């Protein structure tokens, strides 16, 4: 654990990574507690009714799934997809894979057919764990599917595989600007790497009566490793509450019913709460990450939530590396916070040296939450680094010890807390028989940060109209994901291109902004 200190400087100076030679996240997040305090509350599942699940019961579910995986031929290094939302079985599925030394793959239920099959095929998944209502897209994948609620599971305990910190444990896919989404492969040290930032962003998580929840789906690193697994590892009960979409009314009910004290709210959720004039009394800490919050939102948080919202920073490849911590220092509006102990964050120039003023935000090798590399992408992995520094793709600068985020170098769209790669949407659009070419960008939006906007060139003889625009939206929803479809489609005669044939997205972004004005 992070420990306590009177000042940020003392906290940072007193911290050192202490990774053991043998480490398995199933033992770290589950078995250690199940053996010493089996009746301790692990998960309060509000997805269907109310079910309190102890560490002992969660281990029974995990061991039952691990035995079922093994019966399907899953062993060390094999990949297991987890296509579920927030519930206790989701956690058990990941933990079961790790117990066997296998590699879990969190998958989003809103993925379309092509997006889902691409990830399963790229990872070479042997098995997918789904719920009773699997998405239609899963039918396109020709592989084994296990529904825990419908399986006859063994009650025999399963031993934890002998793994080390660097042994692969989880592949989390992240979208970029070019090509297919890449799988960030993490080792068993990734949970340990998240703990200092999670504790810091919740003003030292793990205090008496702490209960942790997030509306963020557990298919993403923010839900799985900023909330669910750290909560289990720290002995903090985790609330699971599967909902079709976030609403302020649901947030009020979940916080009340679950006696929630600690929440990770994505910025879009905070904006929706603010717009609905919702108050959430009784919270001890609120963390937020994804994009910077302004002074107005921080002020509102103090009034309506009764806390200082702690912002944090990271990405799928290396997460929870900077954070605010109201218990130690005042936040600075517009900044991300300060480096989390154990992570060396820098702003560097093109030579990898500390930059004067603006530069590339980078993280030095050695962070425990840093990926092992991109799955089967050695060239992409090498391109992510500049010497000993992992490039985030973001621009930033230091202001009196605070890291200020200035913008992204790439074209990733941040919408409602999701990072969306335009290339995947463009590749989907151009497979439609009416489309000749497409360019996708983000357009500023007061509620979602950005919305996805598509500029589409049609094939000769095709007439553009509202019906075709709606057809293209549904086409992307079905094949990529329901959270990343273009909310606006503009038909254009041509796209701005470089001399090498690449779409000039900056020109499209400027046009999208001008049209809004």
UniProtKB/TrEMBL annotation:
GO molecular function: ATP binding; CoA-ligase activity; fatty acid ligase activity; fatty-acyl-CoA synthase activity
Alphabetical GO biological process terms: acyl-CoA metabolic process; fatty acid biosynthetic process
Domain AMP-binding enzyme C-terminal: 424-502
SUPFAM superfamilies reported for this sequence: Acetyl-CoA synthetase-like
Annotated keywords: ATP-binding, Ligase, Nucleotide-binding
Start and end residues of each AMP-dependent synthetase/ligase domain: 31-375
InterPro entries attached to this UniProt entry: AMP-bd_C, AMP-bd_C_sf, AMP-binding_CS, AMP-dep_synth/lig_dom, ANL_N_sf, Mitochondrial_ACSM
Protein family: Belongs to the ATP-dependent AMP-binding enzyme family.
Entry-linked PANTHER family: ACYL-COA SYNTHETASE MEDIUM CHAIN FAMILY MEMBER 3, ACYL-COENZYME A SYNTHETASE
Protein name in the entry: AMP-dependent synthetase
Source organism of the structure: Rhodosalinus halophilus
């Amino acid at each position: 654990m992070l420990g306590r200190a009177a000042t940020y400087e003392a906290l940072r100076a007193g911290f050192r990574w202490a990774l053991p030679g043998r480490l398995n996240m199933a033992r770290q997040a589950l078995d250690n507690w199940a053996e010493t305090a089996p009746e301790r509350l692990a998960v309060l599942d509000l997805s269907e009714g109310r079910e309190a699940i102890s560490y002992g019961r969660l281990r029974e579910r995990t061991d039952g799934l691990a035995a079922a995986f093994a019966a399907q031929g899953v062993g060390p290094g094999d990949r297991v997809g987890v296509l579920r939302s927030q519930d206790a079985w989701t956690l058990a599925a990941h933990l079961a894979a790790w117990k066997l030394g296998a590699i879990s793959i969190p998958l989003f239920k809103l993925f379309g057919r092509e997006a889902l099959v691409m990830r399963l095929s790229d990872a070479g998944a042997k098995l997918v764990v789904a719920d009773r209502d699997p998405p239609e897209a899963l039918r396109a994948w020709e592989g084994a599917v296990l529904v825990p609620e419908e399986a006859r599971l063994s009650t025999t305990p399963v031993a934890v595989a002998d793994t080390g910190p660097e042994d692969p444990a989880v592949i989390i896919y992240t979208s970029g600007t070019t090509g297919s989404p890449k799988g960030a492969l993490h080792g068993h040290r990734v949970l340990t790497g998240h703990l200092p930032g999670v504790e810091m962003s919740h003003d030292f998580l793990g205090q008496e009566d702490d209960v942790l929840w997030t509306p963020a789906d557990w298919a993403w690193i923010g839900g799985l490793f900023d909330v669910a697994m750290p909560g289990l590892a720290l002995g903090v009960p985790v609330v699971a509450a599967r909902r079709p979409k976030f609403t302020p009314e649901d947030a009020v009910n979940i916080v009340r019913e679950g006696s929630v004290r600690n929440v990770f709210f994505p910025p879009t959720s905070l904006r929706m709460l603010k717009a609905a004039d919702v108050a959430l009394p009784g919270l001890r800490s609120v963390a937020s990450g994804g994009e910077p919050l302004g002074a107005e939102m921080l002020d509102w948080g103090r009034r309506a939530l009764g806390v200082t919202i702690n912002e944090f920073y990271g990405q799928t490849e290396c997460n929870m590396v900077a954070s605010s911590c109201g218990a130690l220092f005042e936040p600075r509006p517009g900044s991300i916070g300060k480096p989390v102990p154990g992570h060396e964050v820098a702003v560097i120039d093109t030579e990898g040296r500390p930059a004067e003023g603006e530069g590339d935000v980078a993280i030095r090798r050695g962070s425990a939450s840093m990926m092992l590399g991109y799955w089967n992408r050695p060239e992409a992995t090498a391109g992510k680094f500049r010497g000993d520094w992992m490039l985030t793709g973001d621009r930033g600068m230091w202001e009196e010890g605070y890291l200020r985020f200035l913008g992204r170098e790439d074209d990733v769209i941040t919408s409602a807390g999701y990072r969306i790669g335009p290339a995947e949407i463009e590749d989907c659009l151009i497979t439609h028989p009416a489309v000749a070419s497409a360019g996708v960008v983000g357009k500023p939006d007061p509620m979602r940060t950005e919305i996805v906007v598509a500029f589409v060139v049609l094939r000769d003889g095709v007439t553009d109209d509202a019906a075709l625009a709606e057809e293209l939206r549904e086409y992307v929803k079905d094949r990529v994901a329901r959270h990343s479809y273009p909310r606006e489609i503009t038909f254009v005669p041509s796209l701005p291109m470089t001399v090498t044939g690449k779409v000039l997205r900056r020109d499209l972004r400027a046009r999208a902004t001008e049209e809004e004005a």
